[in-house]
Amino acid sequence: MTSPLPKTSTADSTVASPEARAWHALPPDEAAKLLHSDAESGLSAEEAARRLERYGPNAFEARETLRWPVMLARQFKDVLIIILLAAAAVSAALGDPVDAVAILAIVSLNAALGFFQEYRAERALAALKRLLAPSCRVIRDGVSRQMDASQLVPGDLVRLQPGDHTPADLRLVEARDLAIDESALTGESHAADKLPASVEEDAAIAERRSIAYAGGLVVRGRATGLVTATGYATQFGRIALLATSIDRDITPLQKRLARLGARLGMIAAAVAAVLALSGFLLGRDALEMFLTGVALAVAMVPEGLPAVVTLTLALGVRAMARRNALVRRLPAAETLGAATIICSDKTGTLTHGEMAVTQVWTPQDGDGPGVGIGGAGYEPSGAFKAHGHIIDPDNHPGLMALLEAGLICNHARVFERDGLWRLDGEPTEGALVTAALKAGLDRPSTAHAREIPFSSARKRMSLIIPAGDCAKVYLKGAPEEVLARCSSVFDGGADVPLDADGVQDLHRVFEGMAERGLRVLAVARKTTADPHAPDAEIERDLTFLGFFGVMDPPREEVPTAIARAHTAGLRVVMITGDAPATALAVAHSIGLDARSALTGVELDAMQDAALLRAIHDGAVFSRVAPEHKLRLVEILQRDGEIVAMTGDGVNDAPALKRADIGVAMGIRGTDAAKDAAEMVLMDDNFATIIGAVEEGRRQYANIRKFVRYLLSSNMAELIAIGAALLMGWPLILLPVQVLWMNLVTDGPTALALGIERADRDLMRHPPAAADAAVVSRGGLVVVILLASYMGLASLWLFQDALARGESLLYAQTLVFTGLIVFEKTNVLNFRSLDRPLALIGLFSNPWLLLAIAVSIALQLGAVYWPPLQLVLHSVPLDGAAWQRILLLAVPILLVPELVKGLGVFVTARAAMNKTP
Are residues 497 and 629 located together in one domain of the fold? Predict the structure, then answer.
């Protein structure tokens, strides 16, 4: 007979096979038989040992992302880095160690910066990890014992109680008032009630009430269950395994820089080869022409670009960290700025992830909407509002009676620890306690009270508190169950009889609250002369007090963040495991134009084209599985979108890894979500994402600026060297001088340009297209014009020096120095691509002015300090030479400033003409 247990895999002994059963649909006794176990005494120790050897430990393999050799090796994958390594090899082979060492030094610096950022981020992430279930209570040989959860095997009998994490997938065989928070797996914002009774075989995961899934947190009740799956065979593990099978694509910035590097490499090689061959055909020495070709290639490729990009991203990562966003890999820092759409999980990201009473209604409110309660989480602070005005709850007897009853008929406790308010108990009950504490109420003693407990069948609980010769009864539960047991209502002054019409009116009230996404609880009370009467008698002829509307409220800053996202051309799609009504209510409250809520079942029936139309039409998605989230991300990516995905649960991990950038929650996020994401929010706040988007856009805008600056500088050098060669002149610049300009003087100024402040309208425009080049055609025209002027001015300086009878070394030093001054002047043109210095402020980036001063100081050392003169083959310049250099530098800044000023003037006039 074939064993019904999940079979082992040669690849991983804990991976489930297709033979795994639909345990949720089987009765408990049949599940026990198929597992060859006993629902009362569990497995024997000997059988458990055999199964452990067969199925392996109940654990996940340690991930390998912290292996430092892998991190270090991937720092050398960029095209520009490979080109530079080839240039270093050529220089070393030609006996020019200075050039080779200089190139290798900059490559090593680039690799070190990238490596240490990733390593620090991984270490910080590791510090956030928490163990899911280090130990559990297991019954073996009929004896209950505490045991390491990794030793669990299929067929083990596990006991659960409040505060336990479910250590494996369990088929419940007994449960008493059990509720488990499985939001990490299902995305539901409230705990799920669990029962041993079987459910339909095709039930969604969130509706499989007979299964306690690994990773869930028991918030109420007690239970025993048989282990049906461990490790990667659990639902939790299956999703984690799906995430590991997804390859992460390179970022948009990496793609753009790779294209730029490849083009520059080909252009440099082609230009160098053509000019070197031309010189050879003109009769120049072959070795000299080869060396000249190398110099031209070095001049064309911006050696400092990879290091400047890395440093800029590293500084941006630090800025994001100050905004509570931990970036794990440097290129991901810019990716968020390039995102065109954010697929956001609801619970804990758009909302607080903690239940709260946001609205109450009492008969005293009559036809009004009731009383709104401010505040979030379990901190007992928040205002009470009615009809838009703050009220004192002491002046609202009906409200106080309702809050008092909700506090008394309750098992939860909220308390402050380490400056944070925490919950001990079921989240919905904690919300009722918090609401009462906000009104200044204290819980009376219920030490001698009798309880008629809540159950999923009863949908209500009662508490009977002795009071002298009588007793007070408090009842809390589902509205329809409570209303069916009420004969009167408390209108704030007295008990008023409740007739059938009144019951219908109350049904309309709570149905309206439910339509707004609220979880509604009703509360009633009475005084009885016989506290020992049968339960049915106790729970009859009660006085209705009112309704509690409970939800996981949106974060206060989210609507503003959503509005900023829309202004910036970013669409936001909400994805949640909650019910459609809740999803729509939250979407509307945070400013999303949500027109429909599609469930996972509806997604399965839709073609990709129809699903894409639904996204564009503003749909939100509820009751979705991990595969649905993954499908949504892939459809959007195929449509050309750059997708950011947020999430906190293991069910989010596959989509987080597939997205262009995954953003995990650092506080409530699971390890699986953090491992799959490129960014971790330390405050679990959606507004932090929008702040990080702005920082990412600033980084990309500044990268575009200094790429243009570096290209204009290198192209000027190429024009000067190439034109001199074609005219038969001596070599105008030496290779070591080119390296000095590209690495020593250009690097600091480009880096300072990389920390330029964000343009004021940065978040008023949509992000750059995914296939947009780092340098646009218009930008390339500007680069060519500036480079041409600087190159031609350098040629004039060289020819003029020789005509004045100066030595070749003097003429080369003059061009060497002139180009550096030209480039330092030119960098000011790229502080803004369309606004003059008069508007952005000359001193608004002091680091750039400092970098220019340092570069000029270094060049003075190169010209006048003998050790550097020896290395750079330079000689001192006189004052007249400096005058000629400065006069030629003036047009480099003056002309672009005039053009920008004219552009601003024309734009302003056009805007004024449009204004009525």
Answer: no
